[in-house]
Structure to design on (443 residues):
């Protein structure tokens, strides 16, 4: 329970960073491209949690992404994050996420896929897509991929505290047995 | 599967119901969200005279805006006086009501430049297309109205289009043109012939009067740069800098005019 509260607190902080103006200091002009911190958080959490928990966490992160999104539309990120959270759970059996290159590549591909699908869902809901949407998509994916592995190190340091450490789950399971 | 379905339900529900989540988030954490590590560079505003007898800069800016609006109204009235037959029909509705609204969120990204506003009362009077004033100058127009809030698209948003009039002190006519946002805090005026229209840096740009929405011209900003359009050398490429900085706004006013139909009692 305490770990869930910690996790929700960190999620809230990441959402505030994503939605607020604080990240503008590292935004890349002229398109004002910023990394997608929630997405990096999703990839990290989905790679380190058991499948059931990973799905719940993916849903929570997606819901938070919708709530903090500038579009004010609920649903697109919740769906995209949950679906791709499940896919990451399968992917981690194939790709070992210990090398920074793999982490960066995974974050890049998933940012493209998740944000791309969310934008498609927004189009279905009748929302307009900005004129620089594709540049923003590529830019955000690239920036998140570059910054992601370093955030990964920070999150790895916090993983035990957050309950995102895979070893702690295995340990708890073996203790129960 | 259940979680994906929950997401689909969120997506399919009317926005009026789901809007409460982002609204509450923005309203509750507005202080944290609006922390600016380094505010963007403010557009240069006219400077108060420094001869020792001037007024404070803030007061000067307020008076400058009021002066420009009055000047635009004067030009409009002169034009109408010359068309006596149309005066009765064309006069603006006296005392067009303004609806005060609080700014709950400011969005300034290349994808979207807008505001989320919450009227103090009578949100049912709001509808898309209505002009929004910030400190007596037009800053944008309403694009969507929800149950308790409304979305404003700023004149600098890349998808914003509006008719404007360009004026200059001493010139008795206004140049009509189309203005579109750029997405970087400025707007541009397009399709204006260089041969037919004399436009210079510093000229004043007004939102053009529009029946049912705006009774008379109201200040938007001033011409920041004028150059030949590189793609169409016969046309101007004019950049407009809005006079009002949206990130500093706490309240805005929506022009809630009666439609011509309702004025006639239909």
């Amino acid at each position: 329970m305490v770990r869930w509260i910690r996790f929700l607190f960190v999620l809230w902080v990441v959402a505030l960073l994503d939605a607020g103006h604080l990240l503008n200091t590292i935004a890349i002009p002229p398109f004002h491209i910023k990394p997608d911190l929630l997405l990096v958080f999703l990839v990290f959490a989905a790679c380190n949690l058991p499948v059931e928990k990973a799905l719940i966490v993916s849903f929570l992160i997606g819901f938070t992404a919708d709530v903090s999104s500038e579009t004010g539309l609920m649903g697109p990120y919740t769906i995209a994050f949950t679906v791709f959270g499940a896919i990451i759970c399968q992917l981690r059996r194939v790709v070992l996420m210990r090398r920074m290159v793999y982490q960066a590549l995974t974050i890049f591909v998933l940012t493209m896929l998740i944000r791309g699908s969310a934008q498609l869902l927004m189009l279905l809901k009748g929302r307009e897509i900005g004129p620089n949407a594709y540049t923003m998509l590529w830019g955000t994916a690239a920036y998140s991929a570059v910054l992601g592995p370093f955030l990964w190190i920070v999150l790895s340091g916090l993983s035990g505290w957050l309950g995102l450490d895979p070893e702690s789950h295995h340990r708890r399971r073996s203790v129960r047995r | 599967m259940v979680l994906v379905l929950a997401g689909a339900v969120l997506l399919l529900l009317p926005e009026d119901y789901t809007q409460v989540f982002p609204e509450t988030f923005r309203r509750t954490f507005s202080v944290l969200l609006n922390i600016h590590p380094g505010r963007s560079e403010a557009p240069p505003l006219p400077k108060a005279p420094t001869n020792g007898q001037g007024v404070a800069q803030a007061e000067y800016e307020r008076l400058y805006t009021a002066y420009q609006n009055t000047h635009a109204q004067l030009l409009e009235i002169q034009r109408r006086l010359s068309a006596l037959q149309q005066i009765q029909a064309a006069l603006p509705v006296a005392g067009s009501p303004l609806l005060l609204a609080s700014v709950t969120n400011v969005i300034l990204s290349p994808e979207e430049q807008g505001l989320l506003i919450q009227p103090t009362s009578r949100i049912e009077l709001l509808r898309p297309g209505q002009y929004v004033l910030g400190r007596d100058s037009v800053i944008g127009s309403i694009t969507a109205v929800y149950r308790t809030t409304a979305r404003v698209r700023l004149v600098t948003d890349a998808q914003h289009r509006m008719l404007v009039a360009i004026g200059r002190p001493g010139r008795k006519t206004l140049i009509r043109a189309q203005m579109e946002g750029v997405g970087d805090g400025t707007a541009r005026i397009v399709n204006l012939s260089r041969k037919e229209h004399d436009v210079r840096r510093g000229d004043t740009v007004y939102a053009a009067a529009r029946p049912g929405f705006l009774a008379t011209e109201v200040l938007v900003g001033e011409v920041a740069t004028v150059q030949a359009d590189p793609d169409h050398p016969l046309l101007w490429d004019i950049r407009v800098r809005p006079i009002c900085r949206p990130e500093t706004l706490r309240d805005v006013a929506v022009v809630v005019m009666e439609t011509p139909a309702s004025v006639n009692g239909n």
